[in-house]
Design the sequence.
């Protein structure tokens, strides 16, 4: 007997059982009270109705051919009313073939939307969203995979790997990664300051422990480049005062660009590559400003003309790692240097 004949036989048997139980219910409804009855007739009828309902339910499953779920290969699929974190449902994929364990297709998805990009999905979990219309494709935006979590400590989507890439965003002609709404992006820094001590990928960027951004070149293994930033102050801070500093020709310094001449911080942080300064003098001549602990280049980068009330020049003064510089003057007279900002 094949499965179809067996199913039909079960249906006939269940039908006879249901007919018999319906007849018994009808007879019970017509009977009068019986002396010595141990159980109220209404309770007995309710019990019989429950049994008949169960039989009818089973008959509906069989007649409608609604059977317990099984996998395509005949293996059983067992589900429960509740799945907890301590008892997760784990579905293992077939390692012999590159097929997803779970694939969810939006009703508007067509295979051409994926194959037209030239890409193939190999993930064990695949969510394929349609475009919601043919013209234009963005008429009804559809997300392939949505992740939502509530609370400031929650992660909507979390990607973790031991040494690879946690999350990859790819687009043929659009945006690979999009920080929507607030636009905020958070990045952990390195444990050390300065140039990263590892070979980079092309166009990789990281932040060191000081928060400075480092960007690699397209060659990947070429030296890192620090992202330059300039910060300007709302007011000048004097770091070299001609009234208290020597005025004769010669080399002076080092001058600490991080400290004001009268004491206190100027606002230039240690590690700045240059200070943006206003260099001024009431005398004619030339002057060279260069980083501390380096050799005087002997080439003037400041000059003033004769008979002028004030010789003023704005320039970036290069600094040492400690934030200091020296100046070599070739004329007498008072000189003043005010810092207006810095260059990282």
Sequence:
């Amino acid at each position: 007997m094949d499965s179809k004949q067996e199913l039909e036989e079960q249906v006939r048997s269940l039908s006879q059982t249901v007919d018999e139980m319906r007849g018994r219910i009808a007879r019970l409804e017509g009977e009068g009270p019986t002396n010595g009855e141990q159980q109220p007739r209404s309770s007995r009828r309710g019990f019989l109705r429950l049994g008949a309902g169960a039989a009818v339910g089973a008959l509906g499953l069989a007649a409608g051919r609604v059977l317990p779920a099984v996998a395509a290969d005949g293996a059983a699929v067992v589900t429960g009313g509740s799945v907890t974190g301590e008892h997760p449902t784990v579905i293992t994929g077939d390692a012999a073939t590159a097929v997803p364990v779970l694939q969810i297709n939006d009703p508007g998805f067509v295979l051409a939307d994926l194959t037209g990009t030239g890409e193939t999905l190999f993930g064990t979990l695949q969510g394929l969203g349609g475009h919601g219309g043919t013209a234009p494709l963005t008429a009804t935006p559809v997300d392939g995979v949505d992740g939502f979590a509530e609370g400031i400590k929650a992660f909507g989507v979390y990607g973790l790997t031991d040494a690879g890439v946690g999350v990859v965003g790819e687009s043929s002609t659009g945006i690979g990664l999009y920080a929507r709404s607030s636009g905020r992006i958070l990045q952990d820094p390195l444990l050390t300051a300065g140039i990263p001590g590892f070979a980079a990928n092309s166009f990789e960027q990281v932040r060191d422990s000081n928060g400075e951004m480092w960007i690699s070149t397209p060659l990947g293994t070429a030296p890192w480049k620090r992202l330059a930033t300039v910060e300007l102050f709302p007011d000048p801070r004097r770091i070299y005062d001609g009234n208290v500093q020597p005025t004769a020709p010669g080399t002076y310094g080092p001058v600490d660009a991080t400290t004001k001449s009268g004491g206190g911080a100027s606002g230039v942080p240690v590690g700045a590559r240059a200070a943006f300064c206003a260099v001024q003098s009431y005398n004619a001549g030339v002057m060279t400003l260069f980083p501390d602990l380096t050799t005087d280049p002997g080439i003037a980068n400041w000059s003033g003309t004769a008979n002028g009330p004030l010789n003023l020049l704005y320039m970036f003064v290069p600094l040492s790692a400690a934030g200091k510089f020296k100046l070599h003057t070739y004329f007498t007279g008072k000189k003043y240097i005010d810092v207006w900002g810095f260059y990282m």
